[in-house]
Amino acid sequence: MSTVLDSYEQWLDGAWVTVQLTVYGCALALVLALAFGLAGTSRRWWVRVLNRIYVEFFRGTATLVLLYWFFYALPLVGLKITSPMTTAVLALGLNVGAYGAEVVRGSINAVPRAQYEATVALNFTPFQRMRRVLLPQAFALMLPPFGNLVIELMKGTAIVYTIGMVDLTKVSKNIQGFSGETVAPFLAVLVLYFVIAQVLQLFIRYAEWRVDRMLGRRPSREPSVSTVAAGAPGAGVSG
Amino acid sequence: MPPPDTTAGSPTPEESGGASTGEGVSTQKSDVAKGGATKGVAATELPRGAAPGIRFEKVVKRFGHNVVLRELDFTVGPGERVTLIGPSGSGKTTILRLLMTLEKLDDGLIWIGDETLWHMKRGDKRVPANQKHLHEMRKQVGMVFQQFNLFPNMNVLRNLTEGPVRVLGLSKDEAVERARGLLDMVGLADKIDAHPSQLSGGQQQRVAIARALAMQPKVLLLDEVTSALDPELVVGVQDLLRDIARQSDLTLLCVTHEMTFARDISDRVLMFDQGQIVEEGPPDQIFGEPSEQRTRDFLQAVLAT
Question: Where are the coiled-coil regions (chain A) (predicted)?
């Protein structure tokens, strides 16, 4: 056990890598989810096709395989991504963003049609309808499934050791290797992932609380289209 | 094709004075007192002056194979108050939804004033309207819905100012002032910072009426606006609408199952069945001595409940 505690600097470095991957990965996933989710609600068929292509491709491919592609295969066909961090963030963000896009699309579609009709009656432009009424209300529906995805993405970062990054998982393996202890390092890494997940959960809860206040209601836990959409497992290997 | 004749057939000559009668509004305190919950209506808050007429010309609307409106023709005069009655599925609400551009027109022409709603001129031809044309035409029309449809992500004040600021380009201060005046009129000045979910159905509908009026439409569409209300809240909303009808020059189209209200508010009543007008006339005639059996049956069924 003492070896585990003495190597706290390694743990910190590993946790920092995991946290960075999570934050950057989520940022990329959020941008992609909004862009392609909105595309999925477009009136133009070819914009909706863009949404389908992105979602089906990146949801249907294993994150680990994506990671191998970006790291090993693409450089051979002339597309070199410089750092392992960028590679991993791309693979994780693209994959989780595909799930997120479905959450965004489903949530926007789940806003009652009457709300859309009220925006037409007030002569809002299509952009104003989305920006002022539909998206804010859809956001409330998105948050719980987004919370799932954020934590899925965080746990999914455990695959990055395969391209040589030293994250929490890799640190636990290393310590097991040189200390000869097995139970202690793996127990430690289990707890650390759990703690990070709880911190992420706190942010999500805070956001939900803010949105509930905006909508003038207490938190409700009714199932919706969007929660069903997020029921699918997230990024690859789980912690 | 000619625009609808904006003078003939308007049974409300006293309304056609338009802006010249504007001064009289603030003196009509006796009306307001009868209104009960509603407070005084200031002249600036209600649209006055030339309201456009409406004309449907061979209007067809289908939902799949179901033909809801079959070459429907009818005219509403400028400033006229018309109530549409009839069994559900007879196409009344569809007429309002076509006018609010919530449903697409399949065939025929809908005139608002001397312009077509769903078509625009290109050279000598009429072509289907683009978004820009619809946006221009919608400026004249407002609608109050059965389910209120307030925006739950905004408080009462922002529900009333969002449209005027973002769509009409009013300054924040102007929009807030207008909102205050309208909330005062509907008797909810103290709810300005409340959230829609904190209001009763009747209060929400009053806010929704204020929100529609904040856009200063010239045509107001009322789609079963008291149907979703608890019985004891219906009268307050109806009184408010009576006041508004009395003190504005709005062209009013109203779908309702409240026959007493229809009688009070309308200049003319149209009885619909299966997308056709079965009978039309002044409310006293339709409700007093309807000539068609279909109307008699319908009124009997409605009044029995």
Answer: none
